[in-house]
Please model this.
Amino acid sequence: MKYVDEFRDTYKAEALEWQIQKLGNLLKKPVKIMEVCGGHTHSIFKYGIEELLPSSVELIHGPGCPVCVMPKGKIDDAIYIAQNPDVILTTFGDTMRVPGSKISLLQAKAQGADIRMVYSPLDCLQIAKNNPEKEVVFFAIGFETTAPSTALTILQAAAENIKNFSMFSNHVLVIPALKALLDNPDLQLDGFVGPGHVSMVIGSNPYEFISQEYQKPIVISGFEPLDILQSIWMLLWQLVENRCEVENQYSRLVEAQGNQQAIAAINKVFEVRKTFEWRGLDEIPYSGLKIRSEYAKFDAEVKFTIPNLKISDHKACQCGEILKGVLKPWECKVFGTACTPEKPIGSCMVSSEGACAAYYKYGGIKTNG
Model:
């Protein structure tokens, strides 16, 4: 395994910057490249990668932050479950701070609901064993990256016959989201930096439709600065040579067929929903995962009556437009003023993978206030 320093080498970064500048001069027109994954957005801001690119290359920040795309109604549903006195609700740390229509999970916890942060869904099984008089619910979010661990946890619960455990599944799928972006007439993209973590699970083959049907290049990328710079360089080469291919910069971890064991676990436990609501992208067909009927006893949507209401975002928040890549964070009216990481109005300011939070921390405070 290579040391991380090798992927942050200054001299190699300068060489890549020089090559990217050369390719920028060969472009026939300015280009827009979307980095899909929130982890890439974080690294781009942290390492100042945008400042190394030629003026002809613009990066667009995509909807690949799992916390950011969770709509308010789903947060409200989780709070509704948690307010049951017989329930212990568990979830990941960032999820607890996402604003619902009135309060966040963290605020609901302060008001008396038993809501606990966990590092893995498997932690919830131990909580269920320790609290047999309570119903323990895991609020599951995330792309295909986290879905395998959720699926394996349900299989483990079934094997151990843990009856007081269930999941509120809000897992989403990246491919339908990319298709929705490509079908959006307001967003003219020239290429994609493909998500690395998701691709470790699903592989590179599912992205072929982007190059074949939409004639756009995509390069699956790692997360270190040299990974991202090399991926941009590879994309620009494709654009200069008028090619549209799926290329895999992250070959040290991503295979064409993906992780078959992880995919098998997902398919065994989950089935695809007919539609799912995304913050900023509205309803996207076949873009979410629900628990199969064979495992209904572990499905919180079966165990509990959930409001399942559609809630509009705060009128001043433009998180939806930022997630679609239509606006930059600093173009939102409340960025850095009424909306900060300490008091977020929108979900993009909550997670470190959110474009607003990343720019606020690393990009300098350029506000509209």
About this structure: Residues 349 and 357 are 4 Å apart (CA to CA).
